Structures are given as C-alpha cells and as structure tokens.
Amino acid sequence: MHKDEAKGAAKDIKGSIKEAAGRATGDERLEAEGAADRVEGKVQKGVGALKDAARDVLKN
Questions:
Q1: Half-sphere exposure of residue 12: CA atoms within 13 angstroms, side-chain side
Q2: What angle do CA 31, 33, 34 make, to 5 degrees?
Q3: CB 19 within 8 A of CB 38
Q4: Which segments of the chain does DSSP mark as H helices, in order?
Q5: What is the pTM of this model?
Q6: d(C-alpha 15, C-alpha 49), whole Å
Q7: Do residues 42 and 10 make contact, with C-beta atoms less than 8 angstroms apart?
Q8: 44, 8 contact by CB (below 8 A)
Q9: Distance between CA atoms of 34 and 42, rounded to whole angstroms?
Q10: Distance from CA of residue 27 to its chain's centroid?
Q11: Alpha-carbon distance 4 to 25, whole Å?
Q12: Are 18 and 34 in contact (CB under 8 A)?
C-alpha cells in the first residue's frame, strides 16, 4: 500500500464524519466541506493505487 492510499483513506473517513456532522446539525457548509474532503480522499487513494501499480510494473 502506498502512503497516498493511507492518507487518502484517512481523508475520506474524516470527510465522512464532517459530512454526517453537518447533516445532523443542519450546517450546510460543514456538510459540503465533508463531501469535498471525501472526494479529495478518494482521488488521493486512486493516485496511490496508480503509483503502486506503476512500481509493480517497473519491478518486473
């Protein structure tokens, strides 16, 4: 697992929590920030997966 995958997963989880908290409290800004964090986390996980795959290909 590449470090970007781990950081992305953490950001995704943080975003989920913020989004849920915003939804529960009616804070649209917090909910939007959480959704943005989730997207950013998913992208970062994808980048990490690509780096991992590229490293595997280059090893062989």
A1: 13
A2: 65
A3: yes
A4: 3-25, 28-59
A5: 0.83
A6: 20
A7: no
A8: yes
A9: 12
A10: 21
A11: 31
A12: yes
Residue with tokens 């917090």: 30
Residue pair 11/25 in contact by the 8 Å Cβ criterion:
no
Tens of pLDDT, residues 2-58? 799 999 999 999 999 999 999 999 999 999 999 999 999 999 999 999 998 998 899
Q: What are the extents of the domains in the chain?
A: 3-59
Q: The tokens of 28 are what?
A: 């649209």
Residue type, 20: A
One-letter amino acid of 37: D
In single-letter form, the type of residue at position 2 comes to H
Other C-beta atoms lying within 10 Å of the C-beta of residue 8: 21
